[in-house]
Design a protein that fits this description.
Elements lengths: L13 H14 L8 E5 L5 E7 L2 E4 L2 H4 L11 H7 L1 H14 L15
Antiparallel strand pairs: 1-2, 2-3
Length: 112
Amino acid sequence: MSAAVDLSGLGLTPEEEANVLLSYEMLRPKLEDGERRAVEGSKGAVYELHRKGATLSCSCPAWRNQTLPVQLRTCKHLKAVLGERDEDARVREAARAAGRTLPASPYRRSRR
């Protein structure tokens, strides 16, 4: 997925803009197929991100407790590593390919 970076208004030449975008893409962390990566959660717990083909997963409770198919799940840890816009675009595309619409909230509702 390409980065959604707005460089307008910076007064860059087209060549400078291309160099900035290329540098951004090279520096942005990616998760390659088969790769596992440990990330620290907000309360110090360590979760594991994993990519298998087009499916991305996280061992955090927010990802595990979603009722969506695994291809449509996401969490803040995936968004932090992959970039929020790219991760949202990935999930939207997976939903479109599956002929599904995404719910407002992918998390299970508590039974009270």
